[in-house]
Model the fold of this input.
Amino acid sequence: MQAAYLAVIYLFCLGLYCVVTEKNLIKIAMGFVIMEAGVLLFLVCLASFPDGVPPIVLEGVTSSSMVDPIPHALSLTAIVIGAGTTGYMLSLIIRLYRQAGTVRIDRMGRTEQ
Amino acid sequence: MTHLPILVIIVPLVYAFLVPLLDLVSSRLRTSAAAAVAVTHLVFSIALFIHVFQNGTLEYQLGGWDSEVGIILYIDGLAATFAVMIALGTALVAWYSLDFVREGESKYFLLLYIASAGLSGAVLTGDLFNLYVFIEIIALSGFALVAFRRGFRALMAAMRYMIFTILSSMLILLAIAFVYATMGTLNLGEIAASMHQFDPTVLKVSAGMFLVGVALKLAIVPLHGWLPATYGESSTPVGALLAGVGHKVPLYILIRFLYFFEAAAGEQRLATILLGIGAVTIAFGHFMALGQPDIRRVLGFSSIAHTGYMLVGLGIGTPFALVAVLFHAMNHLIVKLSAFFSVGMLTRGDRERATVLDLQGRGAASPFAGMAFLVSTLALIGIPPLGAFASKWALIMAAIRADHIGFALLMIAGTVVAAVYYGRIGKTLYISTDDLKPDRSWTAEGVLYGSAAVVCAVAFSFALFPAANRILDELMVFII
Done:
């Protein structure tokens, strides 16, 4: 369990570092996806515990052995939103690339003149 | 149980999804429906406000599930007031857009009304995760709107806006996950009630991430990098939507955070940070606006400065300062919309670029738009008897009463700087180099008349009628 939380920190910080330092738009998009993976992993970790069962009411299953379903619902929503955002971001990068001929943000400024 | 809260959110949402169908029937139907829906949205918001005003705080359970399992909308005076402000702003933007959108561009209305639903939802929700969802709805439609029918530079601006906004969303999502991990609930009311039972360190970490996320959206210096380009490059109604209406949602979240959770009470360091950052934001915004050639960027930097005023007000933290902040937010909404609309009217038919030089002599060519622009810039500077003067005055008084003389002086200095850069634009507006033909279109002109009339009415009513002041006092007592 500890290792999972370390992975959360690592993924989030790696993504953040990538977004802040990279000039390549594709890599920035990747950075966001990595950050998001970190947050999603965090949400999933919150819910899970050893020997937890899916939160479905069946005979012989007590509610105390069920994992918390809310973080799962949250991460599903976050995945959907993330997919939409990433899709739009990539389409924007494609349009920028068609006009500027580069995906590097520091070279785009020069091509526009 | 009244269903007004959910109606305020779904009316624009339903229209947004009907747009492609309506467009198949006829584009005139789509356009007139857009106008009607904007008005309906406003009417529902006002009805909600009146309902909350009469019956007190409203908790609306979605689908009838109670708050333990279901999702709730939580509408108190603050939320209802912001809902009306947002509905009014989006309605004005929608009416202005009727004329702006061409044949075959129905997706503009789709995006605008999805944004409108998101903006309303973000202030009405009583659930932290739904707040995140609504913020994302606003952001996604915002990215697309910024890039709508504009060139390469607008694409760049949209990209930059997107990077800042997704970063802020990630921080807010992580903060929400932290809150859920600690407290096991996402209901704002329950969080506020049980806050003191939990480990303050974890709460401080999540509050910090949450506040940085909100600060990114509010474009507080030094996290303002996206704002000037986004306002400057997007088309007129989109710039107006972002500057006037979109700016109010993070402000609402900040006020809600500070006062609903009483995080500011007894937390002197947070107040000091707000005051400091507010002062830097005021100075930076006004200073940067001085050298800008593009008028929309000037308006953008002035937005940054005005955000600074509101931050200082929040940092002072007395009830009177909060009243002043809310009053200033209302004035800022109306005046910014009016300023953007009049710039759009003055530069109509051009490449829609609005540098100061482009405006040369335009004031004489379209006198009404010129007047509207002058009135709105005077209001932005804070000249009596315009409404924004009253709210700026209130902010300065609040600073003086709380013994923050330095901040009061800074705000006054900011006003002088604003007078310099708006005066420069105003002068250019009426110096003609060649003959320009007036250019008219009835809807846009109508909206312009409307918004300028509202500016003037608000302005003069507070100056001339003490009764209006009394109503305002009563409203403010109710909101807080």
Residues 273 and 358 of chain B are 40 Å apart (CA to CA). The longest strand of chain B covers residues 58-61. The interface with chain A takes residues 129, 133, 136, 139-140, 143-144, 147, 152-153, 155-156, 158-159, 162-163, 166-167, 169-170, 173-174, 176-177, 180-181, 186 of chain B (CB under 8 Å).
